[in-house]
Specification:
The complex is a heterodimer.
Chain A (H helix, E strand, L loop, with lengths): L1 H13 L2 H19 L3 H30 L1 H8 L5 H31 L3 H27 L3 H29 L6 H9 L2 H10 L9 H11 L2 H27 L4
Chain B lengths: L1 E10 L2 E11 L4 E5 L6 H9 L6 E6 L2 E2 L10 E4 L11 H11 L9 H5 L15 H14 L4 E5 L7 H16 L3 E5 L3 H7 L2 E6 L2 E7 H8 L4 H12 L1
Parallel strand pairs in B: 3-8, 3-9, 6-7, 7-8
Antiparallel strand pairs in B: 1-2, 1-4, 4-5, 9-10
Helix pairs in contact in B: 7-8
Classes of the chains: A mainly alpha, B alpha/beta.
């Protein structure tokens, strides 16, 4: 498998988009830390931008990469290698290069300006979001052979998780505001990896006091090691469900 | 060497392979002919595991190949249109495939030499002409001394000299006891290299016989006429 990952990585590094992505994250992080009055504020603005851009770039990059690697995969499929190996190598190649961009572009500035647990959670969330959205992108790409359709599905997924889902949650909270919704909102959070990541980082900042009862509940759950473990567990599920289902589709389709 | 048993494949409503059963033995060159869309390429891709059949089985030396991959180290495949990653250089493609097939004991670089591919090693695959890509495909197919060669319209994009080199190579490999499957539309070429002709039509075998057998049965001197005669008789 390492052999194939090597060639996938080689291909990705040469088209320079990942390098541009790293520089973009680096500039963004350094800029935000220098603009804000305190490192906490910097982290907060960085969190919001990361949760918007990282999923978008991961999903678009992974989808286009998958379609552009079609020839590469076709060449490999006629060779004595397992199909799942080809697929997993593609996945790991993309996720590892994008995660490296996050570790360099966000990890280093965080280490310099705001070292601590919150910064660590921010970087970890970024890496998890990358793994999740690349898996979703691959799922969109194996469903359809048409590149335009695949990218369309990928963008819709991003719209849903980054924008529409929050709208739905807000709508539910307003409509059923008379009922105790703490546990319902907790469940709703688990259904969106972006929200899950946001809350995990927010609760480690001191802004959770502003979030009222729900915030207090979140704090009591996510504040403990048990809660953090659980939310990372949910994140892992978010990686594996789309990844394994897309691998299944890939193994059973014609090339 | 390869046995195809009741193989069926449909793309939506289109039936491409219809309960196809056929046997191929080693040391023969079998030419697969048939009208466009008869299922020739689909059959080759099924043997390679690139297309997964709806039903039926393919056996390689007595063992089913479905959902297996190791058997492919014994197959060299030259696709009809070679698709390669555009950014890779010829050298990298060849090195990569070699890297994947590390356990191959014999490396046959004859075609690389005869086609002068070394001089073009640093060209990008995307900048190559169709014919040069065909040469790379041919070199890769023969490189690992496989027991079976599947050549999908091998000479379609090649110049006459390169086509001649390839034909000589095919005959040379046949003598080593290999099975060589060639799909082709050029009858003179079929007559030159093949021992047997298998005709596919609408996803089923129309006839499968040796070239001399076909000529005898139809009382024709030329293979193209003989085949035209068989086709017309049935209509």
């Amino acid at each position: 498998m390492n052999k194939i990952i090597k060639y996938v990585l080689y291909d990705i590094i040469r088209n320079k988009i990942v390098v541009a992505y790293t520089l973009f994250l680096l500039l963004l992080s350094i800029g935000l830390f220098n603009l804000g009055s305190s490192p906490d504020k910097g982290l907060l603005s960085l969190l919001n931008l990361v949760l918007l851009t990282v999923p978008l770039i991961s999903i678009v990059f992974a989808t286009t990469h998958f379609y552009n690697s079609y020839e590469f995969m076709e060449l490999l499929v006629s060779q004595p290698i397992k199909r799942s190996k080809i697929f997993m190598s593609e996945y790991l190649g993309v996720t590892l290069s994008l995660s490296a961009a996050i570790l360099i572009g966000i990890g280093i500035p965080v280490l310099l300006f705001a070292p601590g647990a919150t910064g660590l959670y921010l970087v970890l969330t970024g890496v998890f979001i990358t793994f999740i959205f690349v898996a979703l992108a691959f799922l969109a790409s194996v469903i359809t052979r048409d590149k335009a359709k695949g990218i369309g599905i990928a963008l819709l997924l991003w719209f849903y998780f980054a924008l529409i889902y929050d709208g739905i949650v807000l709508f539910i909270l307003y409509s059923f505001g008379d009922y105790p919704l703490e546990y319902a909102t907790l469940a709703l959070t688990a259904l969106n990896p972006v929200d899950l990541g946001r809350i995990m980082v927010l609760l480690n900042l001191d802004v959770s006091a502003l979030m009222g009862y729900t915030g207090a509940l979140y704090k009591s759950i996510f504040g403990s090691m048990w809660g953090i473990g659980l939310s990372f567990g949910v994140m892992v599920l978010w990686v594996f469900i789309p990844l394994l289902s897309s691998r299944r589709v890939f193994q059973k389709r014609d090339l | 060497m390869i046995a195809i048993e009741n193989l069926s494949k449909t793309y939506g409503k289109l039936v491409v392979l219809d309960n196809l059963s056929v046997n191929f033995d080693g040391g023969r060159v079998v030419s697969i002919i048939g009208p466009n869309g008869a299922g020739k390429t689909t059959m080759s891709k099924c043997i390679l595991g690139m297309v997964l059949p709806d039903s039926g089985d393919i056996k390689f030396n007595g063992e089913s190949v479905l959902n297996k991959f190791a058997y492919r180290s014994q197959i060299g495949y030259m696709p009809q249109i070679g698709k390669y990653p555009e950014n890779m250089k010829i050298r990298q493609v060849i090195e990569m495939v070699r890297d994947i097939r590390k356990d191959a004991t014999v490396i046959d670089e004859e075609l690389i030499g005869l086609y002068g591919l070394q001089n073009m090693y640093d060209k990008r695959m995307g900048s190559l002409s169709g014919g040069t890509k065909q040469k790379v495909s041919a070199a890769l197919a023969f490189m690992f001394d496989p027991q079976v060669l599947i050549l999908d319209e091998p000479t379609a994009g090649l110049d006459p000299i390169s086509a001649e080199i390839l034909k000589c190579k095919i005959l040379k490999e046949k003598k080593k006891g290999k099975l060589i499957l060639i799909t082709s539309h050029i009858m003179s070429e079929v007559e030159e290299v093949a021992d047997e002709v298998m005709c596919l039509m609408d996803g089923a075998v129309k006839f499968h016989d040796t070239i001399s057998g076909i000529k005898q049965n139809t009382n024709e001197e030329r293979l193209s006429r003989a085949i035209a005669k068989i086709m017309n008789e049935e209509d």
